[in-house]
Amino acid sequence: MKKACINSGLFFLVLANITANSVQGKGPGRFASTTGDTSIVAPPGYYPIIVGSFTVTALNDGTLLLPLDHLMKGAAAGELGQALTKYHRSLPTETSVNCFLINMGGKLILVDAGGGDVYRSGGLGNVLQSLARAGYKPEQIDAVLITHFHADHTGGLSKDGEALFPNADVYINQADYDMLFGAAARQVSEVDNVAKLLAPYKDAGRIRTFSKRQELFSGITAIPAPGHTPGHSCYLVGAGKKKMLIWGDIVHASEIQFADPSPTLMFDGNPGQARDSRKALFADAAKNGYRVAGAHISFPGVGYVDVDGSRYRWTPIAYSTNNKTFIFK
Ligand SMILES: [Zn+2]
Questions:
Q1: How many Å lie between the centroid of ligand 1 and the Cα of residue 231?
Q2: 149 C-alpha vs ligand 1 centroid, how far in Å?
Q3: Alpha carbon of residue 22 to chain centroid
Q4: Over the stretch 198-209, which tens digit does the pLDDT of each residue have?
């Protein structure tokens, strides 16, 4: 528990640095226009994907610049630099924050809520705009499934003590709920800040917890994959080869961790357990050929994991403008 708390503190330390950089005008999402205006922010994105009888829409919350050379553990500095160069990436590394909306027909389920105001000056907090562009209103959301308690996934749940998804139940693994509201959590002020984000839902009796693999809705199953946090969980949508696993923070640096799943991140509460969860999910996704959706893989963050010799390989899904397949039936 203590280790997890320390890592949580580091998480917020890095957050503070990212925020400070952004305030100084070095934040992500900005580019020069033809008029030389550097204040233009790239528009939020959404991308619908058919998953069996559901439509899953990737919603971009923004991008963060992550100093992976400081955050990655177990990857030698030279190898990390080489891997980033190979994929035309640099340091700090542009990193997407993706949420996913599941349209079940009768229900709308959001997986993660983005960084909200907590990360707004760091380049996040765009999920509501992305949701609106996709044609949905926050009050239509029936449930928000949280992959884990960190603020880049929970910051968008509420604003100034008010629930931003007023009709939604929030689902979270019991172990992460205990990190926020259990006796030990009270010792860590950073965790208290995240607890405040969930408080409007808790006060309304709208938080639901689970502690093992469990079907939450017909066709949506929670699967614990602990390590990054004690209750880190994935959500499996659909069945058979058409299914998609929304896996949260199993991968933070796709350029490095698919080739070698061993390196961990400073934010991993239990690095060994996080590594084991990653290896197990890579093996299963490669064996069974279903799509996976990552919170921190470049938007839309959806693709396939394959075995490539002694390594794994990530292949993003093909971009498609075939609108007929986007209509939910
Ligand atoms: Zn994250």
A1: 13
A2: 9
A3: 21
A4: 999 999 999 999
- 114-126: pLDDT as tens digits: 999 999 988 899 9
| Residue 22, token pair as written in the block | 């952004």
pLDDT band at 23 (very low <50, low <70, confident <90, very high): very low
The yes-or-no verdict on residue 302 having pLDDT over 90 is yes
Ligand 1 centre distance from Cα of residue 73 (Å) = 16
The Cβ of residue 216 has, within 10 Å, a number of other Cβ atoms equal to 16
CA of 295 to the centre of ligand 1 (A): 7
pLDDT grade for 36, boundaries at 50, 70 and 90:
low
How much distance in Å is there from the Cα of 319 to the middle of ligand 1? 24
Distance 206 CA to ligand 1 centre (A): 23
Q: How far is the CA of 56 from the centre of ligand 1 (A)?
A: 19
Is 303:316 a contact under the CB 8 Å cutoff?
yes
The helix-helix angle for 189-203 and 174-181 (nearest 10°) equals 110
Q: How far apart are the C-alpha atoms of 17 and 21, rounded to whole Å?
A: 6
Structure confidence at residue 189 as a pLDDT band (50, 70, 90): low
CA of residue 154 to ligand 1 center, whole Å = 10
CA–CA distance, 264 with 285 (Å, rounded to integer): 20
**Cis (ω within 30 of 0) for the bond into 226?**
no
CA of 152 to the centre of ligand 1 (A): 5
Please list, in sequence order, all residues whose beta carbon lies within 8 angstroms of the beta carbon of residue 28, skipping any fewer than 6 positions away: 22, 62, 63, 64, 65, 94, 122, 123
Compute the distance from residue 153 Cα to the ligand 1 centre, in Å. 6
Cα(1) to ligand 1 centroid in Å equals 19
Which tens digits make up the pLDDT trace of 247-291?
A: 999 999 999 999 999 999 999 999 999 999 999 999 999 999 999
